[in-house]
């Protein structure tokens, strides 16, 4: 079971979008997946077609980390109902619901004891190939809780000046954090989101990112896609949405997923 945190220093760069794109690719490729919505805004919960309040949510489970059995509180994503009927039975895509409650743990001065709460919850969990943790937009308590429980961090960045600088700071923060608290933690790479082929600035920043991150820059780069908000608004998996441009996007997530989970977890 691969536990992957999706993080960035800033909001609005596409953490939730990447989490959902990967969840859609996982569903499409038969990778049994659990999405943990740690962001108090709970956008991933909504996007995965789960109503807030459907199960005991992340904040409450973190509070009860020692006693709670997380497997009893996962909720099935409504995306499964959109699959052809014959595929629904074997599909696994579950969600640990997010809510504002988790924000009580989002302090910069989080105690090491609290930092282990998600790790404790996930200890002994089985039945999934992949756990995706959608993090809030800061490196505060909740992101640290996610990292302490994870094998890998996937960073999301936009091809812009501040994002490049922020990503470098975040990579440093991950190195320091893993040295001190999480020896198992590695950097999966940096996914670039919302790139525009017609933008000279984006092209320049992409070259800069290639130079800075070397093999940590993950390909393909995800393009700006005008349908994306509509897809998310409809709480739909990108793999089920019609249109060529969206199909390219879905394939990009397939490619990224293949680099993140062991080949044996993928169907076919
Ligand atoms: N590749 C993309 N093309 C177009 N819009 C995007 C793309 N990625 C994200 N967005 C939009 O940008 C906004 C922020 O994305 P989101 O995934 O919520 O970021 P974060 O979780 O990092 O705060 C959302 O409205 C989302 O629909
Ligand atoms: Mg988000």
Automatic annotation (TrEMBL):
Top-rank taxon, per record: Bacteria
Pfam families attached to this UniProt entry: AAA_31
InterPro entries attached to this UniProt entry: AAA_dom, DNA_Partitioning_ATPase, P-loop_NTPase
AAA domain: residues covered: 1-185
Identification of the protein by name: Cellulose biosynthesis protein BcsQ
Species assigned in the record: Garicola koreensis
UniProt lineage: Bacteria, Bacillati, Actinomycetota, Actinomycetes, Micrococcales
């Amino acid at each position: 079971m691969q536990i992957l945190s999706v993080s960035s220093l800033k909001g609005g760069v596409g953490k939730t979008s990447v989490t959902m794109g990967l969840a859609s690719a996982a569903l499409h490729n038969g990778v049994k997946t659990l999405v943990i919505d740690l962001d108090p805004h709970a956008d991933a919960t909504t996007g995965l077609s789960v109503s807030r309040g459907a199960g005991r949510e992340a904040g409450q489970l973190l509070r009860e980390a020692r006693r709670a059995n997380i497997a009893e509180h996962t909720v099935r994503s409504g995306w499964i109902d959109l699959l052809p009927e014959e595929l629904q039975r074997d599909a696994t895509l579950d969600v640990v619901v997010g809510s504002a409650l988790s924000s009580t743990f989002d302090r910069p001065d989080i105690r090491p004891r609290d930092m282990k709460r998600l790790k404790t919850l996930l200890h002994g969990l089985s039945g999934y190939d992949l756990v995706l943790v959608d993090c809030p937009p800061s490196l505060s308590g909740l992101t640290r809780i996610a990292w302490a429980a994870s094998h890998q961090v996937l960073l999301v960045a936009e091809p812009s000046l501040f994002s490049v600088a922020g990503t470098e700071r975040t990579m440093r923060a991950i190195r320091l954090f893993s040295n001190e608290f999480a020896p198992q933690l590695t950097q999966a790479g940096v996914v670039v989101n919302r790139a525009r082929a017609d933008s000279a600035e984006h092209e320049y920043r992409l070259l800069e990112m290639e130079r800075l991150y070397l093999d940590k820059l993950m390909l393909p780069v995800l393009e700006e896609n005008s349908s994306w908000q509509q897809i998310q608004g409809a709480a739909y998996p990108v793999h089920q949405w019609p249109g060529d441009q969206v199909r390219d996007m879905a394939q990009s997530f397939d490619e990224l997923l293949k680099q993140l989970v062991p080949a044996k977890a993928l169907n076919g």
